[in-house]
Amino acid sequence: MNLALFDLDHTLLPLDSDHEWGEFMARIGAVDADSFRKANDEWFAHYQNGTLDPVAYLEFALGNLSRFPRTQLDEMHLQFMDEVVKPAILPQAVALVKKHLDAGDLVAIVTATNHFVTKPIASHFGVEHLIAALPVLDDAGNLTGKLDGTPTFGPGKIVHTEAWLQRLGFKLDQFERSYFYSDSQNDIPLLERVTDPIATNPNDKLLAHAQARGWPVLNLFADGHAQ
């Protein structure tokens, strides 16, 4: 059995689910559109530039979620999936995940986006295992606005992936082949730890790093074939 890890946003999805969730919340009137969009765009720019404070961002995102009871959040997320996420999912992304699942690989999505936003998306791809930023829940299952533990961002992806594997009785280094697909330079720490790093729809910074290291580049949304 091999290990196959996938980033989510701009890797399997041709969008950023966290940013799109914010846009969706503004569009349906759940938050003040102007002020929220301004803040949402500023956080997204920090992420793209590699200057994001992941704890501060997650407390911003989770804080907005905590304003709503869980039942209402779940209803909004069903609408978000139908209107935003499902129409954006491309067959070649589904096929790539399915290839690893059919091969019997241990498959996980490893994302810096929070668990609430990403769990239904992972389920739609048929992926059972999700490593994502965990919100603190109260006794009724409502989000408190706080982050549980450390962010699944940058080197944090290694920490959380190794902890997840340990719970399953595995170690990262024991797999004959371990794949990680990602689009971002923020994921270089975990890309450097696997046997098969694959720069997938890479941004300019990751593309330059991948070319210097001789990693394969997969333009999944362009043609579905490695270069």
TrEMBL record:
<dbReference type="InterPro" id="IPR050582">
    <property type="entry name" value="HAD-like_SerB"/>
</dbReference>
<dbReference type="GO" id="GO:0016787">
    <property type="term" value="F:hydrolase activity"/>
</dbReference>
<keyword id="KW-0460">Magnesium</keyword>
<dbReference type="GO" id="GO:0046872">
    <property type="term" value="F:metal ion binding"/>
</dbReference>
<dbReference type="InterPro" id="IPR023214">
    <property type="entry name" value="HAD_sf"/>
</dbReference>
<keyword id="KW-0378">Hydrolase</keyword>
<keyword id="KW-0479">Metal-binding</keyword>
<dbReference type="Pfam" id="PF12710">
    <property type="entry name" value="HAD"/>
</dbReference>
<protein>
    <submittedName>
        <fullName>Phosphoserine phosphatase</fullName>
    </submittedName>
</protein>
<dbReference type="InterPro" id="IPR006385">
    <property type="entry name" value="HAD_hydro_SerB1"/>
</dbReference>
<dbReference type="InterPro" id="IPR036412">
    <property type="entry name" value="HAD-like_sf"/>
</dbReference>
